[in-house]
Amino acid sequence: MTKKNLMILNRIRQEVLSDHNRYLFVVRTPQIARINLTVLRILMAERKERGIYISIDKPDKHVKQILERHNISREGSYVDMGVQTEHAPDAISSPMSTPNKILVVSGIFCPTLFLDSIDATMASSPEAKERIVAELRSMNFIMVDNISTMMAYNSNGKIHEFFARFDAFLKEFTNLKCYLSTDRNLPEDVYQVARKMVDREVEILDEWL
Prior knowledge:
Number of strands: 7
Helix content: 40-55%
Strand content: 15-25%
Strand order of the largest sheet: 3-4-2-5-6-1-7
CATH class: Alpha Beta
Structural class: alpha/beta
């Protein structure tokens, strides 16, 4: 590991170990994936935590390959799932017994798909609701990859709907620490709405990279 990579790792580790619950990492777009991977390395490889990764514009299998390539999670140690409402109840309520697991959710350009699937599962039956609530309460974190891409695929109304519902979701599942990443200048609207719902903004300076 290079000196700069070690410095970034240590800076982000200090943030992750703090008492904040909702983070917004602000960094230039080409470096967003690097910062997300660093956060995941700390959460999963070091702290052995379990969580959810929402990818707005990348297929779930692509995210899985990235995690494997960077040795963040070994093959078979996380659930690989593209969210579709009719499949979500069985997929998300399946046992995740291995401590080091991540549920990879592909947003397919629409960030509310994950929340829609949760709502549909909870409404399907009392048993399904009990299973999914127990599963979510056993997890440690949720990450949304590069929220700055939302504007390319969604209206302002859809984006505001996502953040309002996501905020309500996090208030219900307070065990989940939230990690968002964005380029502050691309676009400004998404940055501003995300900034209002987090309690810690972390700017990654160019000279650190």
